[in-house]
């Protein structure tokens, strides 16, 4: 009996895997049985087929479809191979998705059987869930990066203060959510998959946590490909490929032979795809023109952020966007989760004036910014920074993305 259950489970898993490979936005299926419909009339070839009855095929209609705001969903054709019914293809065409305030949208799916002599073409309206991916425009400008020694909680690695000039860019209003991450990556590494009562009816809108730095590279390139943008990252050791499928498995430890290969990742010149913010971009966007410890002032208040002992944080992540945004429309820049940046970490700045800095050329840790739900209030300041290894998945780390 156990053997039969195991075999059935394997067959089911292989079928779901096959269908998911054809189109990764398909999540699950349900079966609808058709009824006898029309008789086939004379085909005009001299053969009378009027006694043949066409029936509606048994169709496993796709459900749980998810699209990303701004994603171009073109005509999609998926083969359907299922024992017990006719084979055929699913086809649907939908215009570009515009999110606005509409999270659920409906569009028409057509199933065309291979055997059109005996089966009808079937259609059905199917609902799609639209996932928010709103990008805030960050204007070009300059600012003093780092912490003044006169600021409370000053730390040497936050100095010396130095002038930085940046080109404009776009930054995601929210940290990447679990829903968005799973739609792009096909998995959810998060520890915190449940919400605090009263905060959210959709736990998938929690920020994704426990993300390795290397996984953010894969996510960004996969998302860029889905959105028909030029991927930002390439790895020289893999023929300069920008396709994460060519990179193999991400490094998992300090002795992993792939570690130096992935650490040599480069940004493709002229690419317009998604990427991590540089440390300078992150701080500039967080400050949003302010010069105080937080963009809300020098003292934490109930509109500042999620940190230990504040808002009843309860050592757990919170749904994105619950607290007010900063002046440039960015949410949760103070606390909730730490956020990965592009730069290698150094324990001090050079102090020289810089234009669009990218950080050191090498290192062992990558920069983390923003503090988390478990950080003390002084660690969620705009200039607070430290480094962390690239290969562990720590439950207090998430990320947000930018576009040039």
Q: Key terms for this structure?
A:
alpha+beta; 2 domains; 14% helix; 404 residues
Could you write a compact summary of the structure shown?
The protein is an alpha+beta fold and 404 residues long. It has helices at residues 2-22, 178-185, 213-226, 259-263, 279-287; strands spanning 28-32, 36-39, 53-55, 59-63, 65-68, 76-80, 88-92, 104-113, 122-131, 135-138, 141-145, 162-166, 169-172, 233-234, 266-267, 338-344, 354-355, 365-369, 385-389, 397-398, 402-403. It has a five-stranded mixed beta sheet. A four-stranded mixed beta sheet has the order 19-18-16-20, covered by helices on one side.
List the SSEs and their pairings.
Blueprint: H1 2-22, E1 28-32, E2 36-39, E3 53-55, E4 59-63, E5 65-68, E6 76-80, E7 88-92, E8 104-113, E9 122-131, E10 135-138, E11 141-145, E12 162-166, E13 169-172, H2 178-185, H3 213-226, E14 233-234, H4 259-263, E15 266-267, H5 279-287, E16 338-344, E17 354-355, E18 365-369, E19 385-389, E20 397-398, E21 402-403
Parallel strand pairs: 5-9, 12-17, 16-20
Antiparallel strand pairs: 1-4, 2-3, 6-7, 7-8, 8-9, 10-13, 11-12, 13-21, 14-15, 16-18, 18-19
